[in-house]
Backbone:
């Protein structure tokens, strides 16, 4: 689905900044240390802006890819979109139900079975009880864990946990999906299915913001691409250009790929992450 | 550095299919409308209500992790208030150099102690509840105001089990159940409300100041001695009695005793406790929602 021009964007971000306060000493704050600080003013904790002056729109039904080196603020930005952090400055407008794939299987209970964890995780992600029961079969099918679905999650491998987590999160039917590099988990077959499912959601009009180190995925799935560096936007625009500039800055040449490429998640990476 | 960070951003969270409420055609007009923090607050309350099932699941999880959900586990929990009641019972009667003529004294103390146990457990627990659920708080969005509620509901489950011992003692001292038992849920609701008002700010401070629970535990104990828990309000000298009635715990303790033991309906003191609780929940809840955006960063 092409982004509709006359419709307000699903996500609108204006001059957003997020700040962490780094206290000068390492000991955890206590009641008496709070009192001491109250009586004699200590130097204020140093500020660290993990993100600053970030502005962009994501039109409904389009995909934004976010690239950048480690520590550039990608995950922080996703956490803001997922409403886990509130920005310390700027404006953020989100229209629609957000589902985040930041940590797959966040809050899984190791001692509960996969089945019980679906119900628990579904509620956490905002599904109602009835919705979970209705989608249960589909979630189990998608995770494709066989017998393991009835065993405790502590017996799962990390890949299996991720599959279950992805399966639940994707069934939330989000209008806005926030994805943090989770497509790299699982085997090639599962990755392909995840990518297909995401394309399916996008076709249905979902809006996606994703962090990716796989430049192929960016080129194939995204409508626009943002390059973050040290918490600020270095560039935002067409995926091809942004990826090219990003790779050039990393000293990596961009290998031209044919436009009609059909391989998705299991294709070899262009350049390196 | 400001104590309460100014949140001049509002996070609009509207379902696309939302039919009537907050449906404004112009996106920018919508922004203007929701810029008022009060609108956002009501929005938040609505979201809390939508996600209320989560409380049950989180509370069940906590109960399962702290006890095996079986008879032995619950019996073990009863041991503490019962032994505590015995300690206080003996202590009081030694201090008085004679045993009380009132045969229901033990029961009277037990009821207050059960209620107080719910109180302390929930308040102390709520100070650590955000940290205890840190993996959820840093990775999933849900209204964090549900977390202190979870703590209170967990305590309520224990309290309910504790109350099951009360009929046994009622049988021994020949006190039958009265129609005033219908007030019991009301008194519990008032206590819940009052605790929630305290739990909201304390859960914020407990996240920042790690040694707060230890201090609070002692303050709560002092509060208990200054409330008619180990003694009844009637035993208090008249000139202190009026003052003591302004202690919100007074109405609650007396309410429980009235409903179970003395078959009297609650008086204005319970209403007063409810009012204090409601004010606490509104201001405490407001404060909590202003601070919760920082929880992810503090963990």
Residues:
């Amino acid at each position: 689905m092409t982004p509709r021009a006359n419709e307000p964007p699903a996500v609108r971000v204006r001059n957003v900044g997020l700040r962490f306060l780094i206290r000068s000493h390492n000991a955890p704050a206590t009641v008496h240390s709070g009192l001491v600080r109250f009586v004699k003013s200590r130097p204020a904790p140093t500020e660290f802006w993990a993100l600053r002056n970030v502005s962009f729109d994501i039109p409904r039904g389009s995909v934004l890819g976010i690239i950048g080196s480690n520590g550039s603020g990608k995950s922080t930005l996703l956490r803001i979109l997922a409403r886990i952090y509130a920005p310390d400055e700027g404006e953020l407008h989100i229209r629609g139900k957000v589902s985040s794939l930041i940590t797959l299987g966040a809050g899984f209970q190791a001692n509960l079975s996969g089945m019980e964890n679906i119900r628990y995780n579904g509620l956490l992600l905002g599904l109602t009880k009835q919705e979970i029961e209705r989608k249960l079969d589909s979630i189990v099918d998608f995770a494709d864990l066989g017998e393991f679905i009835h065993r405790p999650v502590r017996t799962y491998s990390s890949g299996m946990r991720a599959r279950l987590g992805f399966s639940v999160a994707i069934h939330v039917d989000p209008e806005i999906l926030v994805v943090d590099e989770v497509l790299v988990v699982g085997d090639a077959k599962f990755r392909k299915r995840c990518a297909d499912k995401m394309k399916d959601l996008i076709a249905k009009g979902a809006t996606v913001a994703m962090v990716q180190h796989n430049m192929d995925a960016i080129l194939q799935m995204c409508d626009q691409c943002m390059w973050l560096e040290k918490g600020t936007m270095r560039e935002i625009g067409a995926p091809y250009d942004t990826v090219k500039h990003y790779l050039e800055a990393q000293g990596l040449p961009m290998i031209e790929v044919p436009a009609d490429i059909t391989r998705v998640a299991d294709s070899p990476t262009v350049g390196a992450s | 550095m400001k104590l309460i960070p100014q949140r001049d951003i509002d996070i609009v969270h509207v379902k696309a299919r939302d039919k009537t409420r907050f449906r404004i055609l112009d996106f920018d007009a919508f922004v203007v409308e929701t810029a008022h923090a009060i609108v956002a607050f009501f929005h938040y309350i609505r979201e809390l209500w939508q996600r209320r099932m989560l409380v049950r699941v989180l509370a069940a999880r906590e109960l399962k992790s702290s006890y095996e959900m079986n008879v032995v586990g619950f019996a073990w929990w009863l041991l503490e208030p019962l032994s505590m009641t015995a300690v206080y019972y003996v202590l009081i009667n030694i201090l008085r150099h004679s045993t009380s003529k009132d045969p229901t004294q033990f029961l009277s103390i037990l009821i207050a102690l059960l209620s107080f146990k719910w109180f302390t457990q929930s308040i102390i627990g709520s100070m650590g509840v955000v940290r205890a659920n840190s993996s959820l708080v840093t990775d999933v969005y849900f209204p964090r105001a549900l977390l202190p509620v979870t703590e209170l509901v967990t305590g309520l489950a224990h309290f309910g089990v504790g109350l099951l011992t009360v009929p046994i003692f009622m049988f021994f001292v020949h006190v039958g159940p009265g129609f005033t038992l219908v007030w019991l849920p009301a008194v519990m609701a008032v206590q819940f409300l009052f605790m929630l008002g305290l739990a909201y700010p304390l859960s914020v401070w407990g996240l920042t100041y790690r040694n707060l629970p230890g201090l609070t535990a002692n303050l709560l104990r002092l509060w208990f001695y200054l409330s008619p828990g180990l003694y009844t309000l009637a035993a208090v000298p008249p000139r202190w009695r009026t003052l003591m009635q302004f202690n919100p715990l007074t109405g609650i303790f007396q309410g429980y005793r009235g409903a179970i033991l003395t078959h009297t309906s609650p008086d204005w003191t319970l209403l007063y406790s409810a009012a204090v609780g409601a004010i606490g929940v509104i201001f405490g809840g407001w404060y909590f929602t202003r601070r919760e955006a920082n929880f992810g960063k503090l963990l």
The two ends of chain A are 29 Å apart (CA to CA). The longest helix of chain A spans residues 188-203. DSSP finds eight helices and nine strands in chain A. Residues 173 and 201 of chain A are 8 Å apart (CA to CA).
